Amino acid sequence: MAVLDTQDHVIGYMPAPIAVVSDNGPCYRGKDFQSLFTGHDPLLRHIRTRIKAPQTNGVIERFFGTLKYEHLFRGYIGDGDALDMEAHRFRIIYNTIRPHQAIQDRTPQQAYLNPITQTNLPTS
After folding, report:
1. Name one GO biological process term (predicted).
2. Mapping DSSP to helix (H, G, I), strand (E, B) and coil, where does residue 22 land?
3. So where are the chain's domains?
4. pLDDT digit string (tens) for 40-53?
5. Using an 8 Å Cβ cutoff, are 61 and 54 in contact?
6. CA distance 54 to 24
7. What DSSP letter does each residue of 70-115 carry, written as one string?
8. How much is the mean pLDDT over the chain?
């Protein structure tokens, strides 16, 4: 049910994304989750990755690896509430403090608020 609550929060908070990409976990295959894609913006659609092919969902797989190895595995987490708190804490760090090589060593927040415009390169 947490996935559904999060999805409702995201859809209510910002313009609907064009696609939600997920793996093939049972929580993403059920009627409850699929019902989120009816009645919203017609461009909102659900795309599931290929079965047993985590590389097709590489961005989130990389994020989960970073979450585990840079944050969660560095200390003791006693219960689900502590895990929830640490995941939330890391999300703030990841988006507002931690620089990302793929976006010129800026934070996602900096990249979103101050996008780098690309100049046209000469063609000749």
Report:
1. DNA integration
2. strand
3. 1-48, 57-114
4. 566 678 888 888 88
5. yes
6. 10
7. HTGGGS---SHHHHHHHHHHHHHHHHHTS-BGGGTTB-HHHHHHSP
8. 81
Query: Which token pair is 113?
Result: 């608020």
d(CA 106, CA 96): 9
- For residue 33, give every residue at least 6 positions away whose Cβ sits within 8 Å of its Cβ, in sequence order, or none: 3, 4, 7, 27, 46
Q: How far is 60 from 68, CA to CA, in rounded Å?
A: 12
* pLDDT value at residue 110: 94
Lowest mean pLDDT among 19-33, 69-83, 93-107, 110-124: 110-124
pLDDT digits (tens, 9 = 90+) for 62-99: 888 999 999 999 989 999 999 999 999 999 999 999 99
- R_g (Cα) of the chain, nearest Å: 18
Using a cut of 0.85, tell me whether the model's pTM lies above it: no
